[in-house]
Amino acid sequence: MSRYSRQICLPELGPEGQARLAAGRVLIVGLGGLGSPVALYLAAAGVGNLGLADFDTVALHNLQRQILHDTPAATAAAPKLATATARLTALNPEIRLVPHPEGLTPENAAALVAAYDVVVDCADNFATRYLAHDAAVLARVPLVHGSVYQWEGQVTVFAPHLGGPCYRCLHPEAPAPGLVPGCGEAGVIGALCGQVGTLQALETLKLLARIGEPLLGRLWQLDALAATTRTLRFAPDPACPLCGAHPTLTRLDLARYAAPVCTAAPPAPAQPDEETDTPAGADFLLDVREPTETAAGTLPGAHLIPLAELAARAPAEIPRTGRLVVYCALGGRSLRAVRQLRALGWPQALSLTGGYTAHR
To answer: Which of 48, 249, 9 is nearest to 135 (CA)?
Structure first.
């Protein structure tokens, strides 16, 4: 009672709500930037059973946002599950932690998700995100979604069985490989992960305690640079392949999720004739970043064509002759663009080493 007294005294929660938290079962998919605050706040609030699904190790370059882990673990490349379990046990030894060292996989997703009351999506790739979401919808388990990109974040709750839409109502299929840069290329501010993850934890507590109004059919968005938020409403899609009137996705087909078709895997290393270390002398300078990135600045004289639109727009907008230099944020997407352009008939295309970050 002493540990939870400050929340038990809330009239909306009370002893009954606290008892529901203690009996609650929550699966956290990913113990990184979002999973860290989610796990810490759910453990501190007394959620009785926390499933921790993560197969990765602690890395130094992630510690600016993955506050569940520490520097010695990073230098030793320790499993995230080990450091998370130690930290959460120290925070609240009264709760039960259930490790899932294999993470969420196509083989275990259906049974794993069905064993929990709420799933919290803290994944950092589309393959895992769609797998967790589809398994949750099919098992009629609410999923609390959160995602971050640079300075922007969003949170919502997907639960068609409670009357709300699902992720596929918004995005029926995942983007093609390489179209969406990960945080290693696009960057992300650590405190933003704290804000988004904390709201995910709050939505999870409301669902478990059966209080308040969850973000069903509402997408909460944050622009951290402008310090503004907005909430968008969206309805279920009757034609949704998962939760629509005539669904075509009625089970977890392993072939759909077996390969990481949605991840932005790094391209093969650049060859000497594929890169240049200067934009000087370019007859055509091409920026393949997204509009949200180019709004913060571009290199002088650059033409803007996002990578996803390159194949469709290149024939009409890019000259066939002259020196063509392509850049993105750090060089990964521009290298993909160069290889795409060369295959389409621009043999002179070159990727700018280091991208906009190195030459702005």
So the answer is: 249
Fold of 272-359: Oxidized Rhodanese; domain 1 (3.40.250)
* pLDDT tens, position by position, 12-43: 999 999 999 999 999 999 999 999 999 999 99
pLDDT at 183: 65
Sign of CA dihedral 3, 5, 10, 13: positive
Q: Where are the domains of the chain?
A: 5-257, 272-359
Can 122 be counted among the known catalytic residues?
A: no
Can you tell me which residue has the tokens 């969406």? 180
The residue to which tokens 């080990």 are assigned: 82
| 328 labelled catalytic | yes
More confident residue, 186 or 162: 162
User: b/e per residue, 36-67, with b = 16+ CB within 10 A?
Assistant: bbbbbbbbbbbbbbbbbbbebbbeeebbebbb
pLDDT at 174: 80
pLDDT tens per residue, range 285-294: 999 988 867 8
Q: Specify the 3-state DSSP secondary structure of 169.
A: helix
Write down the catalytic residue from 122, 166, 169, 183.
Answer: 183
The more confident residue out of 263 and 281 is: 281
According to CATH, the topology of domain 5-257 is Rossmann fold (3.40.50)
